[in-house]
Amino acid sequence: MVLELMKAHASVRDYKDQPLTKEQVVELVEAAQMAATSHFVQAYSIVWVTDQDMRKEIGQLSSNVNQLETAGAVFLLCADYRRLEEASKMHGEPVVYDLAEQLIVAVTDVGLLAQNLALAAESKGYGICYIGGVRSNLEKISNLAKLPKGVFPVYGLTVGVPNEKNEVKPRLPVEAILHENVYDAEKYATLLPEYDETMKAYYARRSSNQKSTTWTKQMADFLKAPRRAEITEFLKKQGYEMK
């Protein structure tokens, strides 16, 4: 059952006007919290955005207005050392989180929490979508949510009753990501063209937003130039020096 649910995932970007109650949100978050966490630091926080004006502004700043305005619940999933700083103060100890290791720990913790939250929501029949666009305006969105030093949004997450659901998008074949004992880059010469044909056929036949392209072409266009280079300076302002 769980495997079937995981394999059926497709992003939902349009929702029915059915807000989640606080009880429903708490139930999902409690399940999400059971994700693994490095050294039990739990270096994350969730900001549940219920204010409609704030939703709209975050939607504009992340280029996802319709999605954030129609979702049953909107969350900012944040890396957080502020709470850990408070815990350490209780024992007269400082918190060191300006190393790259601490950034990796926090972002990993957020990712595990987020996937648990998404899976819990989908198990209840909701649709979900991650909003990486919040990183396009990290400082403005952080100011809106009054995030203190030590806290920053890794991404947003929308949850709600789907208005419509997209078809499941084919992933890379297992052979392309699974390496036994040693990394094998030579197989990409065969596997990537085959995957391009799979994706080209998918884009041509899906029920909406048909297009003619391939995965490798999309990735080449996506990665050919720097993206969100300003994030480094913002993270430093929040205490993540990455020394």
SSE run: HHEHHEHHEHEHHHH
What would the average pLDDT be, to the nearest integer? 96
How many discrete domains?
A: 2
Could you give the order of strands across the largest sheet? 1-2-4-3
Explained architecture:
This protein has 243 residues and is α+β, with helices and mostly antiparallel strands. The protein has two domains: 2-167 and 226-237, NADH Oxidase; 174-219, no CATH class. It contains eleven helices and four strands, in the order H-H-E-H-H-E-H-H-E-H-E-H-H-H-H. The protein has helices spanning 2-7, 22-32, 52-61, 65-70, 82-89, 100-123, 138-144, 174-177, 188-205, 215-223, 231-237; strands spanning 44-48, 73-80, 127-131, 151-160. The chain has a four-stranded antiparallel sheet, sandwiched between helices. Helix 2 (22-32) crosses helix 6 (100-123). The radius of gyration is 20 Å and the shape is globular. 28% of the residues are buried. The mean pLDDT is 96.
Short characterization:
The chain is an alpha+beta fold and 243 residues long. It is built from eleven helices and four strands, in the order H-H-E-H-H-E-H-H-E-H-E-H-H-H-H. The chain has two domains: 2-167 and 226-237, NADH Oxidase (3-Layer(aba) Sandwich), CATH 3.40.109; 174-219, no CATH class.
